[in-house]
Specification:
The complex is a heterodimer of chains A (281) and B (386). Chain A is mainly alpha-helical. Chain A is built from 8 helices and no strands. The two termini of chain A are 44 Å apart. With 386 residues, chain B is of the alpha/beta class. Chain B has 13 helices and 13 strands. The interface between A and B is large, with 60 and 68 residues.
Chain lengths: 281, 386
């Protein structure tokens, strides 16, 4: 049960974490949607938290004008070139060539992965995390279901024990075979309950549901680790496979050190008159 | 209808008195518990010195308390499932103290507390490295003497494997409640006995792999819950009725608390050891089938050539006697003795009934082999103290 309680705590933690992330995303998206719906030109990202500083506002306005000028430039060129018979392909090409956003995107070829690494998740990742969260919920539900199924078996054994115990008590009343003391009563219950529980433990049904519970709880733990590892990769924490990889390396190295130390001991100070025999294989 | 037929108890006054008495015990016990100091529940207090260590494994030598009568040193090898402290639980329940009093030089291996960092340690590491190095260290510390090994439970299985792989290193081998034939429990089916055998065969090898992938090691709490489920009502009543029954008597209460302290200290089982322990031994019974491999070596029980004393507990529900008895024919040695004790798995070490018997028999058996009363070609024997 402790394992399950532990599992539940972890699940609760991740569920709450997931809810917090989702809530934050919802707030952000809602904010973006609100801004987009505002009349007039779309506000620049910094405008939402810019201090009402005259210079800053002037610079921002100048930036917007500059961007608009560059965007309008190809259109002007096209209009002029249209008089000389230029085609639509050229227009689009020019538009791309002069559009500052395209420049930013071109620079982004290099810096996008860098920004991704430092800024954390993008939309595609959120979907990935959500899938992991769903897998976690599914694993948690499966573990709870397996637990309930197994507990039902245990409860059946308790019910049988309680039924037999009630029968004995009834017998004590109806057949005038009174129970001597509290200790006798407790001893009777312990014997009956113990017997039924132990008998139940050896049945195929009990072993089946116990195995299913073990599988479900192992799976839940693995899914938890996968989610934790995903966050680990995003935010730079060592993941379980990385730690295991290191652990294996250290174990291998320690094994080599022990072997070297042993070889050195045998060479320098033999412990017995006869050399230590090799393992018989 | 007479009054006797209308109620289940012979005497309700007696029941009320009994219940009142229990309530009084609980109150007295609560006072005693409040006044109990940590040092009063210390366990494993016999004085000892560290003589060697490797990674988390430490070898201790107990300080002698009597003139030495057994020439060869004795090394106690406990299971990884619990800690060696059970062999020195308290002053009047201590195999270690009994052996020291009889003039035996006693060493013990402390396997430490494996963490997830130890998940890749396998039986090969524990038997051919740590145990081998500990035996070497004992021998070196004792001027090159061969070593007597007492292997307990899983530690007995490790010791037996070691004896088969390195027969020249050991003078005598003593196994206590040691599983050897992991499929033999069917011969003696007592209710609740051998549940671990049934459980481990009810899961698949893939289940074992998934369990270890999930946890790295076999968690100590997990094995604790398996043991607890083997005595379900005892577990349920332990902290209420049992505690109430002992709480009025300080000595009994301290005994109870010390045992609880040992039970609570259940180390994790290193992942690769657990994998081999469950799959190769409990599921496939490879030790007696001659298929158990430790690293590059195959364990061949017919190489066990030193005298063997095999001690088991008649009421052992964890290692039923059938799992350990009648294995003498598998060894090369003709000097094979079985000793049956009237106790449960750990009761062998802490029960009042067996206190003294275990240590006394070990010393007597060793002394006979030291004096030459018994040669290596003596025939098998069976002693039943049940």
């Amino acid at each position: 049960m402790a394992e399950l309680d532990y599992a539940k705590l972890i699940t609760d933690m991740w569920t709450k974490g997931g809810e917090a992330v989702t809530a934050a995303q919802q707030a952000m998206m809602k904010d973006i949607a609100t801004r987009m719906a505002l009349p007039g030109p779309m506000m620049m990202p910094w405008q939402s938290f810019a201090v009402p500083d005259g210079d800053f506002q002037s610079a921002a306005a100048a930036y917007q004008t500059l961007m608009q000028t560059w965007k309008d430039l190809p259109q002007s060129l096209t209009e002029e070139s249209g008089k000389t018979g230029s085609d639509r392909i050229t227009t689009e090409l020019l538009k791309k060539v002069f559009d500052p956003h395209e420049w930013l995107n071109a620079i982004g070829i290099v810096d996008q992965p860098v920004r991704h690494l430092v800024e954390g998740p993008k939309f595609a990742d959120f979907g990935h995390i959500e899938r992991k969260l769903l897998a976690l919920m599914s694993a948690w539900t499966a573990a709870r279901a397996a637990s309930v199924k197994h507990q039902t078996n245990v409860l059946a054994a308790w019910t049988k024990a309680a039924s037999e115990f009630a029968g004995k008590l009834n017998e004590a009343v109806t057949k005038a075979k009174p129970i001597g003391s509290r200790s006798d009563l407790v001893a009777m219950w312990v014997e009956i309950a113990n017997r039924h529980l132990l008998e139940a433990q050896s049945t195929a049904t009990f072993l089946d549901t116990q195995r299913e519970l073990l599988r479900a709880s192992s799976n839940l733990r693995i899914v938890q680790q996968e989610l934790a590892d995903l966050y680990g990769e995003l935010f730079g924490f060592p993941t379980r496979p990385e730690i295991d990889d290191l652990t294996r390396t250290v174990s291998d190295l320690r094994r080599e050190v022990r072997a070297l130390r042993r070889a050195n001991n045998e060479r320098t100070t033999p412990s017995r008159a006869s050399p230590r025999p090799k393992a018989v294989s | 209808m007479t009054e006797a037929k209308s109620q289940p108890f012979a005497n309700f006054t007696e029941v009320f008195r009994d219940t009142s008495e229990l309530s009084r015990k609980v109150l007295d016990g609560a006072k005693l518990l409040t006044n109990t100091r940590d040092d009063e529940v210390e366990i494993a207090t016999t004085e000892k010195d560290e003589v060697w260590r490797s990674d988390k494994v430490v070898l201790y030598r107990y300080r002698p308390t009597a003139e030495r009568k057994v020439k060869q040193p004795l090394l106690i090898v406990f299971s990884l499932v619990g800690t060696y402290r059970i062999v020195d639980l308290q002053e009047d329940r201590s195999l270690v103290r009994n052996l020291l009093r009889s003039g035996v030089c006693v060493y013990v291996i402390d396997w430490g507390s494996p963490s997830r960092a130890d998940r890749f340690l396998g039986m090969h590491d524990y038997i051919n490295d740590y145990l081998a190095d500990a035996v070497e260290a004992v021998s070196r510390n004792e001027g090159g003497e061969r070593v007597n090994v007492v292997g307990i439970c899983e530690g007995g299985t490790f010791s037996l494997c070691y004896a088969a792989l390195h027969p020249e290193d050991l003078q005598n081998l003593i196994l206590v409640v040691t599983p050897i034939d992991f499929h033999a429990e069917d011969a003696q089916r007592r209710l609740g006995h051998g549940f671990i055998n049934i459980w481990t065969r009810s899961i698949t090898p893939e289940d074992v792999d998934r369990l270890l992938a999930a946890h790295g090691n076999l968690p100590g709490e997990f094995m604790g819950s398996i043991f607890a489920s083997m005595t379900p009502m005892r577990t349920l009543l332990k902290y209420n009725l049992d505690l109430a029954e002992v709480s009025a008597d300080k000595q009994k209460l301290l005994n109870f608390l010390r045992m609880e302290k040992w039970l609570a200290d259940r180390p994790h089982h290193p992942g690769e050891v657990a994998r081999q322990w469950i799959k190769d031994l409990y599921q496939d019974n490879k030790l007696v089938n001659g298929q158990l491999e430790l690293g590059p070596h195959r364990v061949d029980l017919s190489k066990v050539s030193m005298p063997v004393l095999n001690i088991f507990a008649n009421d052992d529900h964890i290692v039923p006697p059938a799992m350990t008895r009648n294995v003498g024919g598998r060894f090369a040695t003709k000097d094979y003795t079985e000793l049956a004790l009237p106790a449960g798995h750990m009761g062998v070490f802490v029960s009042g009934k067996t206190q003294g018997i275990l240590g006394e028999h070990i010393v007597k058996w060793l002394a006979e082999r030291q004096s030459g009363t018994k040669s290596r070609n003596s025939s098998s024997a069976r002693i039943d103290r049940a």
